[in-house]
Prior knowledge:
Elements: E1 3-8, H1 20-28, E2 33-34, H2 38-46, H3 56-65, E3 72-83, E4 88-95, H4 100-113, E5 119-123, E6 129-133, H5 162-176, H6 180-187, E7 195-202, E8 214-217, E9 233-237, H7 246-263, E10 268-273, E11 276-281, H8 295-298
Parallel strand pairs: 1-9, 1-10, 8-9
Antiparallel strand pairs: 2-11, 3-4, 3-6, 3-7, 5-6, 10-11
Amino acid sequence: MPAQYFRFIARTAAAPRRSSLVEQLLARADDFTPVSDWRSDAFRLIAPQAAAMPAVAAAALCAERGAVDAAWVGLAAPVHYAAEMSNVRLAPDGMLALRPEEAEALAVDFNRVWTDSGTHLIAGRFADLYCIFDRALRVMTCDPQEILDRHIEEFLPAGADAPAVRQLMSEMEMWLFEHAVNVARAAQGLKPITGLWLWGGGAALASLPTVRGFCAGADVFFRAFTGDGSGSAVIVVPEAPGSDAWHDAESRWLEPAVEQLRSGRISRLDLSAGARSFSVTARANRRFWRRRRPWWGYFA
């Protein structure tokens, strides 16, 4: 039977607000399941049993441009680092959103500076930056969303080709220092881009795997899959529960999902954030006696 997977990207907030529906569901849920790769868990809901999950960057770029001549594709996420006495931290609000013209300007200039290097940048239509390599890389990377407000050292690329990738990231930091895009951002009171964090990489795709169900919300990987509009679903919500922007997502996606759970049209509702996922079934939803507590406490 179909299930729905809700991923809350914002598991904390500067001044978090309560969310009655989310807290009701969490209070009645089964105990949490540790999550090491939430995208992999969610992908299994919508993918046929034999389908392997493609790399995040490869799927996103394939959805935009189809087959691309590349041996390895990674996302180059614009970030803002906070330098400390002996460490570098990814700032709590250090994941930056680019405007299309900024992404295009960075791609053009990168390709000018790194010409004939076997590496170039592509600006996507959602202002994502893709780093394209003409050779396959053996490297493991981390989603920057998972390391906000943490020291970056232990999360830097690892593997046989990690030294080359780390070197490129260091060179990009120097290139970005006083870059024209950053000068313009400073004039507008915006945080400077102090680095491009390479992650989500893998072999380029000739085509996307077929999925069943549907995807909605805001995620660079799952927006690549349109699905057939029925069955299971993956919904990624960037807003923190209880915030002003959250209410639209709640009425559009979560409330209908709860109704489908009650009516038996779906078997399970998963609520995921950070490194935890909670499952609510129709049977669990009858645990009305459980006391509610602030939603952010469940994902601490």
